[in-house]
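Record type: ASSEMBLY
Status: queued
Input:
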Amino acid sequence: MDLILEATVDQPRRAVVLLSGGLDSATVLAIANAEGYETYALSFSYGQRHTVELAAAHRVARQLGAARHIVFDLGMRAIGGSALTDDIDVPHHDSVDQLDSSSAPITYVPARNLIFLSVAAGWAETVGATDIFIGANALDYSGYPDCRRPFLDKFEEAATLGTVAGADGGMKFRVYAPLVDLTKAQTIQRGLELGVDYSITHSCYDPGPSGQACATCDSCLLRKRGFEDLGLTDPVLSESVNT
Amino acid sequence: MDLILEATVDQPRRAVVLLSGGLDSATVLAIANAEGYETYALSFSYGQRHTVELAAAHRVARQLGAARHIVFDLGMRAIGGSALTDDIDVPHHDSVDQLDSSSAPITYVPARNLIFLSVAAGWAETVGATDIFIGANALDYSGYPDCRRPFLDKFEEAATLGTVAGADGGMKFRVYAPLVDLTKAQTIQRGLELGVDYSITHSCYDPGPSGQACATCDSCLLRKRGFEDLGLTDPVLSESVNT
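Status: finished
Output:
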């Protein structure tokens, strides 16, 4: 086989971990590390209106000890369709009660996790891995179909059939989504047990000029409520942090 | 549903067509047009060592009348693993008899069609389409698992489950690979019937400084043999064309 693979049999098990720099993916990176993987953190630059989350991803990858961290450029703006990549206003709310999880939010990026996972599968194949970790959660946004387990299961099969490692090498791609059925509070609880420092993460869809969280977008409200459910305050919403 | 879709019920059936600017994808674009689709041609800029193929893609899209043509940036170099994206020499041969299709060639890009199709699914969702055309061929390179029908079938299911249009909208994504079982000669025959001008296509993996085909890489040899099987000469290998 002519494929250039970096792995050898003596190396630890490797996994590619999708890392946005947000609360969920930071937790997932900590979980993959705790499970003994050598972690390959993968972030995307995809025409977000704010790149402050990539800075957070760098901080998280470094602090949690990822073996490598790369940023993959994706020209998502070319295909449009979302408030996160287009010039569409991100919705803000007065309280978490106004969140509507019954349909795809305006922040839905078409086929985003399909694209992200596909790139992860490509990188995984290059570094000799077939395990991919993703912070998908089916509860926060039930309107995101690509955050549900049936999709992730089917993706595993597609990646297995669509790569040399899988189709010819007999390896099976696996997509681990350890947060898929957790509430935000449960995710935070798990991350705190693993020592995740949430003050360096960034989840806000619409940060201020110096990168501070807005506290009123869906993403901010979800994590705010998660901390509150544990009797805690989200560290990125306290005034002294998040610069 | 908050998704921003461009399509309305009065519009013709739309399809996204993967268009590299090579012989196969030009033929597929002509086929999709002939089947009555309004075609959305999608090319990728992914760190190829030569961008001459994107110029060919523009020519082909224009000449065959695609409704739109976009180039999507993919930072494939970041994940490495192929002579097409890394600084690895493309193999050259004295004749077509030296082609080896028993394993993945060094020009294999990890998970390429998985990534390409995922982006196609995202764009399709944005323009209100669920049909995707790809020039995959299982004969030319039996070492490319992502050119085989079992992978394409599984991808259809993954895309359906991973998008709002599919999972919630009841649409079914379809991947059409009309060349999948054709010989190169059969592909060319079909394209000529549809009026494809192969002189404006570009398939070479290792073009010269002014973009001319090398005539000795795997890709050049495959199409050269295809034309010869029909008693023709590949127009890009005649000295007066391909600038």
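Annotation: Chain B touches chain A through 57 residues (CB under 8 Å).
Annotation: Helices of chain B lie at 23-34, 52-64, 112-127, 149-161, 164-168, 184-193, 218-229.
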